[in-house]
Every structure is written in structure tokens, then in C-alpha cells.
Amino acid sequence: MASAAESLERRDFIRAIVAEDLKAGTHDGRVVTRFPPEPNGFLHVGHAKALGLSFGIAEEVPGARCHLRFDDTNPETEDEAYVEAIKRDVAWLGYDWGEHLYFASDYFPKMYEFAEHLVREGNAYVDSQTEDEIREGRGTVTEPGRPSPFRDRTVEENLDLLRRMRAGEFSDGAHVLRGKIDMASPNMLLRDPVLYRIRHASHYRTGDEWCIYPLYDYAHPIEDALECVTHSLCTVEFEINRALYDWVVENIPVECRPRQYEFARGNLDYTVMSKRMLLTLVKERYVRGWDDPRMPTVAGLRRRGFTPESIRAFWERMGVAKTQSRVDMGKLEFAIRDDLNAKAPRVLCVLRPVRVLITNYPDGGSEEIEAASWPHDVPREGSRRLPFSGEIFIDDDDFREDPPADWKRLAPGRAVRLRHGHVIRCDEVVRDDAGAIRELRCSYAPDSISSEPPSGWEVGGAIHWVDAEGSLSCEVRLYDRLFTVPAPDVEAAESGRDFTDFLNPDSLVVVENARIEPSVADDPPGSRYQFERLGYFISDEEDSAPGRLVFNRTVTLRDTWSKRGGSAAGERRRARQPERGPDLSAEEHRRLRQAAAPERPPELESRRRRFESELGLDAEDAELLTRDAATADFFAAAVGAGAPPARTANWLINELPRHAGDRALGELPFGGHAFGALMALVEDGTLSGAIGREVLAEMAESGAEPGAIVDRRGLRQIADASSLEPVIDRVVAANQNKAAEYRAGRTALLGFFMGQVMKETGGKASPELARRLLEERLGRSADR
RNA sequence: UCCCCGGUCGUCUAAUGGCAGGACGGAGGACUUUGGAUCCUCUAAUGGUGGUUCGAAUCCACCCCGGGGAACCA
């Protein structure tokens, strides 16, 4: 068991929780997670994050597992086709659910049985109000709800009604089953949530067997409990649902006690992730389908050429936290380039061909060039042959008649190396009648393939090319971001426009007449390449066919030449910061509140004055301590036991609440007297503040006397220089480099040294003294 | 408006009262038969105001900002 806990790296707060549960043996040392998609759409990259968490943890902990469970409780939107698509995507990402494939719909009988149980226990009732009446009765965020007139039906009546609901005696909406919780709860979900509704609809798996269907908040915890899931991980918007989740699990007869934890969902720049919007894009034909390479779906990414490894690595680098975030596209692009650099063989492809005639090449001559498929820094073997003759194509982009100063490509009178081939120089530009470039006339330096050209040929850079005769025609699809703004959903909501208004018209550019080297002719669809200097590409699995080559651009190469600007997301965030005036200080707010506060009872008011005049408390402390009688009594008892008033007030206000947790003063296992004794120990220097806090923590836990705790644990502080100096010397001697840095001006390191001294002394060093000695010792220049 | 959750370099994320660190991006340089890759250097942050503490991103108070919440969706 310990080894299982150790194998889990605490990479994020969820894994930390799992590791701690493992250590504490919380779920008998078991770890079971689950991934619960509803089969009403395709998986997207955001789901890949959730997959990486739930399946990732299962992979990392020996003996753990992750269930793939279809949460199919709504017959109206779900479909078998989505089940298959989701299974395919999960498997493609490399996650293995083994035997553990489940369907919520398989639990319908059990869920119904539990519903009767809830009714019998008085925890649920059949409500016969209309949908509108129920909504109305729920109240608002500021007003409590009103109980339904049907709330107090007898168990017998409820049971009878529920059975008849199930038997199909009622029409849709005639009745619902509601949990009987709390109509006044600030959490609206707890105001008697609907558990079951009548819906005479065919379910894709259970057909017409059921005419009542459970709702998410009721079904999900049951699914988890029945499967003995231990850590039910979901996104933060379900945080409020947790209270209801816990209520359900506590009120049904199940063995296992799953816990729900929430993390931030994975959002990406320049796309949308909501199922509704994705469905709109597909249905209204803004894209070619769920697997359109511009879609953020797993299927889209796959067709675009992303690897499962890159997607997993991407989310692993992103981490898991609870802050809402919108990740840079650039990070996803980094992940795929990083992966493909070592996986995609290099080939040459010319997107927009310009004909180049090599005038000094032997007439009708040709040769074959052996070209390595991998650059020098990728340790892989392999090569192919490139045909070369006196007539080739280069890319439009690689020729400029009037180039900028730092141009490294072809221009009149300039020379470039043809990648893997000869060096050529442009002698003449031939135009057609319309003035467009028809061909470039160049000369080449013979025998310059694997050697430097003769002097006089100043080579700027290397460009890609293909042989005019020996190359193949192909179609290349260039993809760009689907939307023109980083957050189309937010933009739409704020501007009142539709999110489709922000679609990027250039998200797909089809290049029909590209030319590619012939070596790729017989590769299977789905082959990935780097088209040198252009990017990573994949042959399209749908549209490629023998004799018809179609490539999708996965991502461009990083381009430090024609670089783009900074992060648009950041600019946007800054732009949205509204103007506002200066904040009121905390002090001003306190005064305002106090002015508005009702008069306190005279008894407390007179104690306040006495605390202030007789005990010398400052006005604010006195006020705080006399807000209620219990606090005032507690304080008085402490002072009565000989405690110093000022320090006691300070600790009562600042330290005690932390250790009390939710407990009221009266519920603590110690009283004002013991607290006063602790204060006396701090006051006379027996304890430092830090140790005092530690003792207080133990008192709050066990109720033991402070003196007893101090004696048993030997906690007296070390406050004499003669005992502390050797420690200081040791610490400084052991960290000579840091000491030098400190002396050089990095005084923040004092905290580091203080920490070391505290560690050495078990926290018992007097901090004031330790700090003074340390400053003294470090302040001196290095002694020899 | 009430309840819940958040707020750390431009972005994502570490730091469980003790050195604000890493990654992406950006800038500069080295190298280069890909303006790729790699390597080096640099850049840049704790929302605000108070408080507690020897010491606060971390604890407390108030404020500000963002997200979620009044489906018979999940």
C-alpha cells in the first residue's frame, strides 16, 4: 500500500489527495476513478484533460483502475453512434478501460429501487405541481423557497404514486419525485431537487422499458457508489452539486462511499468547447463534420494529424488546478511539434510552384539524389531518392525580386542551395504578357551537392524544391484557427452576437496544385511528414486514394523569421480591466461598519469600556472581544488566571479562531483559564510565539494543560546566545555559498537561514534572538 | 442581490509560514544544407488595503475582479 502511494507523484492537488488517501488507507487502499461521458456528442480536447487525470491516476497507481461509463440518463439526446465514437477516441488516446465499460442505463432498476427506499425513509416525495409551479416555489437566490403542497404526503401515498409513475399511468410532467431536503437552503440544488421525471421516450439502450428517468444529480452518485468509485473527478461547475451528491450517497443503502473532487476544465484559445456550439458547427455545416480538422474534437485533432502522445503530453505540461483558464494555442502547437520532430520523416513539397529552368544543366539530363529522411540531429536511419533535372519548381514564397536586407532565399543575382541538391543562382526573370512571373532562369554550380560552391557564389540559405517532371501533383489543406477571437463564447455573450459571427473565414485554405516528391506515392493514408520548411502534414484518411494525394497541415514550423505578435489573450484581459477609483482602506471600511452597527447591550458596552480602561486594551480589540458574552467571559477568565491582557487579546483574535475551526468557544476542550496559562508561558519567554501556537494546536485537539504539553514535549525555547551561537555557526558554515550571496546583497536569504536554524533546533530557537545573531554573523564579511 | 469557488510572469503552473521556481511565449546570441531542431543568456508575476508574525503568495479582516448557482440538461 505504501508503495502505491509512493508511485503517485504529487503533480497536482488531485493527485495529492489521492496520495494522502492511499497513505491513510481511506478507501481500504483502493483507487477507482471513472470517466463518465454522456453519449450526445464527440469528445474534445477538454475531455482529453479529464481523461488524462482519471485514467492517468489509474495508470500511475498499482492496482487502481478507471471505468469508462456512459452517463446515458437522458433518452432524448443520446445515441449509440456517439458511444462508438467516444470509445474509439478514448482508445486512440491510449487509455484502457479493460473490463470496466459501464452504462448508467444498466442501473435503472437499482436507481428505482433506491427511489422507493428514499420514499420509505421519508426522504423523497411525489410532487404533482406543474413544472412552472415547482420553479416558482423554489424561491430565488435571495429568498427561500416555499414547501410544495404535496410535500407532506404519506409514505404510502408516495409509494403508490411512484409505482404508478413507473407503470406508465401518468403523462409526461404529471408528477415528479423530489428529494425532501431543505426548501430554505442557500444552495438552490438542495431545495427539494427533482430526482425522477416522467418521460415517455425511447431510450437507445433500454427502449421503452422505462417511462421515468433519473436526473443527473440523483443518478451520478449512485453510479459511482455502485461501481465503488473512490475519487469521482469532475469540473468545477459541479462544485455546488457536491452537497447533493453527498446527500444521495448518505441516504441510500450502498457499501461504498465515493468522494467528488472538482478541477478546472480545459479551455483553449480561439475555439469553442461547448457541446451545444460544437453541435451547431456540425449541424449548420460550418465545418465538414465532427472530425473536421479545424474542430477541437479528438476526432478532428486526429484527422488534423495530432498524435495521442502529443495531446497527453500537452495536458501533462498544463497541470491541473482550480483556477479558470484559457490555454494558448501555442502550447498545443509546441506539444505536437515537439513530438513530430522525432517522428515525421522529412519530404519536399512545393505549395505554389514557380518554374525554374537551369540553363547550364546538360540538355535532357537528369540525376537522382540520395536524401536523408531525417536531419542530422534526429538519430534515425532512412533516405529516399529525389529526381533532379534541368527543370524544377520552387515555392513562390522563396523568390523575391526586391528582397529585404536579411533575405536568405532566391533573388535576382543571388544564390541559394536547393535542399539536398546543388547551388543555383538566379540570372533572369521571365514574365508573361500580363507581367506575372512565368519562369526563373538560373545557373547551377556543378558538383555542389555535398560540397561548398566555388567562390563568388554567396549562398544565403537553403530552399525546398521538386523536380518538374518527377514530382506528383497533390492537394494540400492549410488550416488555421477556427475563430478570429480568443474567446468566441464570451465575445458573443458580451456583444449579443452569435458565436458563429466570429468564425475565421480563412480557417481552411485549399491548395489544389501543390507538387510533392514522388517518394510518398505509395505510403498509406494517415502517414505523417514534415514538409521541410513548411510544417507537419498528414495524408488525409478520408479523401486520399491511390493516385490522389491529399494532405492536411497539422501545424506550421516555428517561424522566427515572420514572427507574429504577443499573446492576444493577455491583451484582451488587460483591456477588460475596468477603470475604477481607489479602494477604501480596510480601516475606513471598519469605521463605516461600526457606524452602521446597532448599539450593543449595556452590559457588554460597560465591559468594553472596562477592558479598555482597566486592562489597557486598544479600542479595536476591546470592541472585538465584547461582541458577545462568551468571548468576553473567555477573555476575562484568561486574564483572571494571570495572563497578560494585550497578548491574550491578540491571540484570542488572531490565533485562536484558526485552531478552533468551526467550533464555538464553548465547544473547545479547554477554557479561558488554560488559555491564560499558555499566554503566561509565552509572555515570560518560556515559549516562543511559534511554539506557543503549536501548543495551542495540541490544546485544541486534546484539551491538555499547556504546562503538561510543554513538559512532555520539552518545548522550552532556546533564548540564550551561548546555546544558539554554535547552531548559527554550523548553519552558516554549511551554507557558505548562500552566505556569500547574502553578503553580496541577496538579503532575502535570511529567511532561508532562519528556516535552517529552526530546523536544527526543532523550532525551539527564539526567533528574535536567532534573527539578531544571524544578521550579526552574516553581516560580517567572510572570515577565513 | 444571496450562496459557493477562484485570483502568482503575456499564458499554464510550482512554492502546505522560511531562496517566488519551471514550462510555453518573447528578446538576444551560438550552431545549422530546414529562417526547423538543439544549446546558452535575458525578459517578466503574488489583485488592493490593513492586521498577525522574527519572517506572509501562504494565516485573519475588509474591498476589488473573475467563474458557477434559481432545467423535469449533464
Structure notes:
Helices cover 38% and strands 17% of the residues. The strands form 6 sheets. The chain has a 7-stranded mixed sheet with strand order 10-23-24-25-21-22-11. It has a 7-stranded mixed sheet with strand order 19-16-17-18-12-15-20, with no helix packed on it. The chain starts with a helix and ends in a 5-residue tail after the last helix. The model is unreliable at 564-581 (pLDDT under 50). The chain binds one RNA strand of 74 nucleotides through helix 6, strand 6, helix 8, helix 13 and strand 19.
Topology, element by element:
Layout: H1 2-7, H2 13-24, E1 32-35, H3 45-60, E2 65-70, H4 80-92, E3 101-103, H5 108-120, E4 124-127, H6 131-137, H7 155-167, E5 176-179, E6 194-198, E7 212-214, H8 216-226, E8 231-235, H9 242-251, E9 259-263, H10 275-283, H11 298-304, H12 308-318, H13 329-340, E10 346-347, E11 349-350, E12 353-358, E13 366-372, E14 383-389, E15 391-395, E16 415-418, E17 423-431, E18 437-445, E19 459-463, E20 465-467, E21 472-479, H14 488-495, E22 508-516, E23 528-531, E24 535-539, E25 550-556, H15 568-576, H16 586-596, H17 602-614, H18 619-625, H19 629-640, H20 645-654, H21 656-660, H22 672-683, H23 689-702, H24 706-713, H25 721-734, H26 736-743, H27 749-760, H28 767-779
Parallel strand pairs: 1-2, 2-3, 8-9, 10-23, 12-18, 16-19, 21-25
Antiparallel strand pairs: 4-5, 5-6, 6-7, 11-22, 12-15, 13-14, 15-20, 16-17, 17-18, 21-22, 23-24, 24-25
This protein binds one RNA strand of 74 nucleotides through α6, β6, α8, α13 and β19.
